[in-house]
């Protein structure tokens, strides 16, 4: 099943058909053809009935528990190319999310960061809640965020089943003021409130949607968070969040989707999946558990080395001189005898 999916996906890539991932369509895999939704008779609890991969043991999203992270000093810096370029980009209300077609806009590359090769961005989309207590797929130390952005990439320069897809996650936090960088997208969303509507977002710059600190992230192996739930995804979840205001979130929450069962338009929100079991998987971090970065760790190590050398020099040279001087001084002390009558 897994190899079959893999071959079909490679064929799709070779045919240069964008939007090949599950958030757009469920054509991948012969049993994942149902028109799934997050709730109802084809909701997430039923996904595995028509898509068995969704109950496999390396699923996403996960709960990231900071105290259980494994510090990975070999996680080097990510390379992200062309993210500062300005492009016109198509934004579509696809009913399960809003999707930005990165593949058609230009070439956004992701590499290094201990990834096995170069990945080309295919699309980005969002998950959000009906209120700010929920929304994100991933959770960190029990906290769910109001908005999460996913950039989905395809591995281009070699075939490696387990890491064929890379996904980058950006978590958003509520701020009292609008995030000006998001505003062009927010305005575009107000034009595509109904499922199937699309518009062009001019002067789009992908770097504006990323946190400033790209050096700190979590890394684990998992799956797509929607059918067909393929377990060929290497996840990078940035630690630093991006700001979004309640007013901007309210525009996400004003979007609608067409409900399969009733045929009615309903609010598009809470498009996140339940937390999946880790099943023994390790989540790696660019920082150790105490929050000490690799650079700080090296600085601490250097300080310890200098201290040890300093103490060694003291005991080798200064201490014998001090001891000899003290002994000479004691030799000159008069001997006083006392007696008790
Ligand atoms: Zn997603």
From TrEMBL:
**According to its UniProt record, what is one Pfam family this protein matches?**
Carb_anhydrase
**Cross-referenced Gene3D superfamilies, in alphabetical order?**
Alpha carbonic anhydrase
Question: Taking every annotated instance into account, which residue ranges of this chain make up the domain Alpha-carbonic anhydrase?
Answer: 34-287
What does the record give as the reaction this protein catalyses? hydrogencarbonate + H(+) = CO2 + H2O
Q: Which UniProt keywords apply?
A: Glycoprotein, Lyase, Metal-binding, Zinc
In terms of InterPro entries, this protein maps to: CA_dom, CA_dom_sf, Carbonic_anhydrase_a-class
Q: Which GO terms describe its molecular function?
A: carbonate dehydratase activity; zinc ion binding
Enzyme class per UniProt: lyase
Q: Which cellular component terms (GO) are annotated to the entry?
A: plasma membrane
EC annotation from Swiss-Prot or TrEMBL: 4.2.1.1
Transmembrane region(s): none
Which PROSITE patterns has this protein been placed in? ALPHA_CA_2
Record bears the keyword Manganese = no
Query: Which SMART domains does the entry mention?
Result: Carb_anhydrase
Q: Does the keyword Protease apply?
A: no
Q: Into which family does the record put it? A: Belongs to the alpha-carbonic anhydrase family.
Recorded protein name is: carbonic anhydrase
> What organism does the UniProt record list as the source?
Owenia fusiformis
């Amino acid at each position: 099943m897994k190899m079959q999916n893999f071959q079909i996906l490679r064929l799709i890539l070779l045919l240069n058909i964008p939007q090949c991932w599950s958030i757009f369509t469920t054509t991948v895999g012969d049993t994942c053809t149902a028109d799934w939704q997050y709730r109802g008779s084809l909701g997430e609890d039923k996904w595995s009935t028509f898509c068995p991969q969704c109950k496999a043991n390396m699923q996403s999203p996960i709960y990231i528990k900071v105290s259980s992270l494994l510090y990975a000093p070999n996680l080097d810096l990510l390379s992200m190319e062309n993210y500062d370029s300005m492009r016109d980009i198509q934004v579509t209300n696809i009913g399960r999310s809003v999707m930005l077609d990165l593949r058609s806009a230009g070439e956004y590359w992701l590499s290094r960061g201990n990834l096995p090769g170069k990945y080309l961005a295919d699309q980005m989309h969002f998950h959000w809640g009906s209120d700010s207590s929920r929304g994100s797929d991933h959770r960190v130390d029990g906290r769910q965020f109001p908005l999460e952005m996913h950039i989905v990439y395809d591995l281009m320069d070699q075939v490696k089943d387990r890491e064929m897809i890379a996904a980058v996650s950006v978590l958003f936090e509520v701020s009292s003021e609008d995030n000006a960088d998001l505003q062009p997208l927010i305005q575009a969303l107000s034009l595509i409130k109904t499922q199937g509507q699309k518009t062009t977002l001019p002067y789009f710059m992908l770097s504006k949607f990323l946190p400033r600190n790209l050096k700190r992230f979590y890394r684990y192996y998992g799956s797509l968070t929607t059918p067909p739930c393929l377990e060929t995804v290497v996840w990078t979840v940035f630690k630093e969040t991006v700001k979004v205001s309640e007013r901007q979130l309210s525009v996400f929450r004003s979007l609608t989707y067409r409900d399969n069962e009733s045929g009615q338009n309903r609010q598009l929100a809470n498009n996140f999946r339940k937390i999946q079991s880790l099943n023994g998987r390790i989540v790696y971090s660019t920082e150790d558990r105490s929050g000490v970065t690799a650079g700080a760790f090296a600085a601490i190590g250097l300080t310890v080395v200098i201290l040890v050398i300093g103490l060694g020099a003291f005991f080798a040279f200064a201490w014998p001189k001090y001891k000899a001087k003290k002994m000479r001084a004691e030799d000159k002390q008069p001997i006083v005898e006392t007696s008790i009558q």
